[in-house]
User: Which sequence fits this backbone?
């Protein structure tokens, strides 16, 4: 009888571990144009899916054209579904901060406006603490030579962007914008985070 109970407990423990391994979490980052953001995070091990969209504004179900005016208050963001057993939130934050310029307010490269702001939308108190700790450390060590201005805010309603924005780089990699703006970011990612990339 003891053997049967031990076997049952072992099976239950294995099932629980397997279920935990399947559990996913969300991370949401804004770091300029979501075409660039999407292309970066799609390549990371442990990232299950990515959706380009809009968050942080006042208008429900905004369109790309409305967000581009800067009047809705939304940022172009990426909602990432990831497996924390494979990639940690800390790892995602590291990629986030090393893949854009977090010292420019409402601007990334040639893209200017509040919709291109650097922002972390946290989903849990733990994510908030980790993001704040990371940002404080970057500023304390003067990592960029300028102050990090990334906003850290509670997650707000997320609106999925239009279909033509989804999987943009993979569908349009030969377009001039993709080759000139996104490809260098991918090259940098492959150089710095090689061990974290999907095969």
Assistant:
């Amino acid at each position: 009888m003891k053997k049967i109970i031990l076997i049952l407990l072992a099976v239950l423990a294995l099932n629980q571990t397997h279920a935990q391994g399947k559990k996913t979490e969300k991370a949401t980052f804004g770091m300029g144009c979501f075409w660039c953001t999407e292309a970066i995070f799609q390549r990371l091990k442990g990232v299950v899916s990515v959706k380009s969209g809009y968050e942080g504004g006042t208008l429900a179900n905004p369109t790309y054209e409305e967000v581009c005016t800067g009047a809705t208050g939304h940022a172009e963001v990426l909602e990432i579904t990831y497996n924390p057993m494979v990639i940690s939130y800390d790892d995602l934050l590291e990629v986030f901060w090393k893949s854009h310029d977090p010292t420019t307010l409402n601007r990334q490269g040639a893209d200017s406006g509040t919709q291109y702001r650097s922002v972390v939308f946290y989903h849990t108190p733990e994510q908030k603490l980790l993001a704040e700790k990371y940002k404080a450390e970057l500023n304390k060590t003067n990592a960029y030579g300028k102050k990090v201005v990334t906003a850290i805010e509670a997650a707000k309603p997320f609106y999925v962007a239009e279909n033509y924005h989804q999987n943009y780089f993979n569908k349009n990699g030969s377009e001039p914008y993709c080759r000139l703006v996104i490809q260098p970011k991918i090259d940098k990612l492959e150089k710095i985070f090689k061990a974290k990339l999907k095969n």
Observations:
- The first helix runs from residue 2 to 22.
- Strands lie at 25-31, 47-55, 75-82, 107-108, 111-112, 118-122, 151-154, 158-160.
- The two ends are 46 Å apart (CA to CA).
- The mean pLDDT is 90.
